[in-house]
């Protein structure tokens, strides 16, 4: 689905006019393309210690030029630019560091990675965060800022908890200050997880890349050191068999295409009435089609049987099928309420039950469910839908624990406004508002949701479970 406004103001006279009138100026986002460098320039790593070193090593392993800044706080009363001098491990053409990175002829930074795992008091934040601040004007379009810090817990001392939580507030605000398609996201390390754990590096790679174009202001928690980085980063799902529900069109079709592009054999599922479109998607991704209404009592058994019988394995299940039947609660009828609950959450629960009870799920099985920002922030006219999508969030958190014994994971993605046939039906004025009320000032594309699901489905995300990753361009509502 097209966003004609973004097309118009992205170039030429349209851009000049929008600027003069003070209208929103969304930019074309950097999206993943095979063979294109991970980031559009050198990356500044802020911080000292083993985490910063491990992140530098990983970046260099991905052919990224690295610049270092110790991120030490200036003496009290000192100027902000009086921190420890940056050191460059890059070629002479790399930026000389944040103090001078905007210098003539220096390449723009592709990103900033902040190693904040050791912050112990709120005062510890100023050095590294102000160092990042000094480099913000040197960022290339669609650059990335990524923090790596520890998740705060109720057992932390108050000052430690304040420092760790402070990272989240600073990052979310910083993300709102970025321009030109830039995004800011964070990785939270669980207890005992180090910065070089596979899922930390997998998450870092995802967040730096064009795969995370519409993920902004979010945190991924890496709870365990499980996971494995793919041998071929362009085919992280090689050899996997994935089932995607609701795949005849929209986000589901994009998920099928993306998982297939990343190497998976894909089974696409949709209602018999969508059989023709489903067959087209199946042919396009060289997968197989299963016509099935997921609310049928034996849906789980039929999905399992199809995957094992036709493909000999079943590694990933993406619960994407969903419907809306919007009405203000005062006007809501039983049919509208019950149909949304039946498709969006009850079917997922029943299918998961059947799969878990079968004893046939392989080691490392992945479930990724599509929730919605409506399930987090609520939305007028969507009590039924929001109940179902908040239900999805509760379900994945609980299912994560049930999959842990087989090394499996359950996560959700929560899309914001995505350009699909579902949102094309929203009245024009509401649609325009829905598109613009996020930090990137535009709707996301179905592929943006698909890329997040691709990451969560991969071996690299083995240490990420029970997470809800919003793909919403940092939507203004909810956290
Ligand atoms: P869509 O309406 O374009 O596609 C949904 C697909 O699910 C259709 O092909 C439909 O036939 C299928 N489906 C519906 N009921 C089914 C059933 N009982 N059994 C099997 N398949 C069934 O919707 P869209 O926009 O692609 O949304 C996909 C998912 O993303 C949904 O879960 C939706 O709630 C969610 N979402 C979408 C957002 C958006 O902005 N488009 C925002 C947030 C969440």
Q: Could you spell the SSE succession in H and E letters?
A: HHEHEEEHEHEHEEHEHEHEHEHHEHHHE
Shape: globular
Biggest sheet overview: 7 strands, mixed
Q: Poorly predicted ranges (pLDDT <50, ≥5 residues)?
A: 79-85, 90-102
| CATH class categorisation of the largest domain | Alpha Beta
Provide the residue-averaged pLDDT: 92
Bound molecules: 1,4-dihydronicotinamide adenine dinucleotide
What structural keywords apply?
3 domains; single chain; 479 residues; globular; alpha/beta
Topology, pairings included?
Blueprint: H1 4-9, H2 12-21, E1 43-46, H3 50-61, E2 66-69, E3 87-88, E4 109-115, H4 126-135, E5 139-150, H5 158-177, E6 183-189, H6 198-208, E7 219-222, E8 241-245, H7 250-261, E9 265-270, H8 275-284, E10 288-291, H9 299-311, E11 316-319, H10 334-358, E12 366-370, H11 374-377, H12 383-403, E13 409-415, H13 421-424, H14 428-436, H15 446-457, E14 468-471
Parallel strand pairs: 1-2, 1-4, 4-5, 5-6, 6-7, 8-9, 8-11, 9-10, 11-12, 12-13, 13-14
Antiparallel strand pairs: 2-3
Helix pairs in contact: 7-15, 9-10, 10-12
The structure holds 1,4-dihydronicotinamide adenine dinucleotide.
């Amino acid at each position: 689905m097209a966003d004609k406004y973004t097309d118009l103001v992205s170039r030429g006279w349209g851009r000049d006019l929008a600027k003069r009138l003070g209208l929103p100026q969304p930019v074309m986002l950097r999206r993943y393309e095979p063979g294109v460098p991970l980031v559009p320039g050198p990356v500044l790593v802020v911080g000292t210690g083993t985490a910063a070193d491990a992140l530098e090593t990983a970046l260099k392993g991905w052919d990224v030029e690295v610049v270092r800044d110790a991120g030490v706080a200036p003496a009290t009363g000192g100027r902000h630019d009086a921190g420890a001098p940056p050191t460059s491990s890059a070629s002479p053409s790399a930026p000389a560091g944040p103090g001078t990175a905007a210098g003539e002829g220096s390449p723009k930074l592709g990103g900033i990675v902040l190693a904040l795992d050791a912050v112990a008091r709120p005062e510890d934040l100023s050095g590294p965060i102000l160092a990042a601040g000094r480099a913000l004007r040197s960022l290339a379009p669609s650059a990335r800022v990524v923090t790596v810090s520890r998740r705060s817990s109720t057992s932390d001392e108050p000052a430690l908890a304040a420092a760790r939580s402070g990272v989240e507030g600073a990052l979310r605000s910083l993300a709102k200050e970025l321009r030109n398609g830039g995004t800011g996201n964070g990785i939270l390390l669980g207890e005992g997880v180090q910065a070089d754990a596979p899922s930390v590096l997998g998450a870092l790679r995802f967040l730096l890349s064009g795969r995370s174009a519409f993920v902004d202001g979010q945190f991924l928690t890496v709870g365990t050191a499980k996971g494995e980085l793919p041998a071929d980063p362009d085919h992280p799902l090689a050899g996997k068999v994935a089932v995607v529900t609701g795949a005849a069109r929209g986000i589901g079709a994009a998920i099928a295409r993306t998982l297939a592009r990343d190497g998976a054999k894909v089974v696409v599922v949709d209602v018999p009435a969508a059989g023709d479109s489903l067959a087209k998607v199946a042919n396009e991704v060289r997968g197989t089609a299963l016509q099935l209404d997921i609310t049928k009592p034996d849906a789980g058994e039929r999905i399992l049987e199809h995957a094992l019988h036709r493909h000999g394995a079943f590694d990933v299940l993406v619960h994407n099928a969903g419907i809306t039947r919007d009405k203000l609660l005062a006007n809501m009828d039983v049919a509208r309420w019950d149909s949304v609950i039946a498709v969006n959450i009850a079917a997922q629960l029943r299918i998961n039950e059947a799969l878990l009870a079968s004893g046939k799920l392989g080691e490392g099985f992945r479930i990724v469910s599509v929730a919605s920002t409506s399930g987090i922030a609520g939305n007028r006219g969507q009590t039924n839908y929001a109940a179902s999508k908040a239900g999805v969030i509760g379900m994945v958190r609980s299912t994560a624990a049930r999959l842990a014994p087989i090394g499996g994971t359950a996560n959700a993605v929560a899309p914001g406004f995505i350009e699909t046939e579902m949102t094309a039906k929203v009245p024009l004025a509401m649609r325009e508002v829905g598109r613009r009320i996020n930090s990137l000032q535009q709707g996301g594309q179905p592929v943006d949701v698909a890329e997040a699901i691709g990451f969560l489905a991969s071996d690299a995300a083995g240490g990420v479970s029970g997470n809800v990753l919003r793909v919403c361009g940092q939507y203004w509502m909810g956290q």
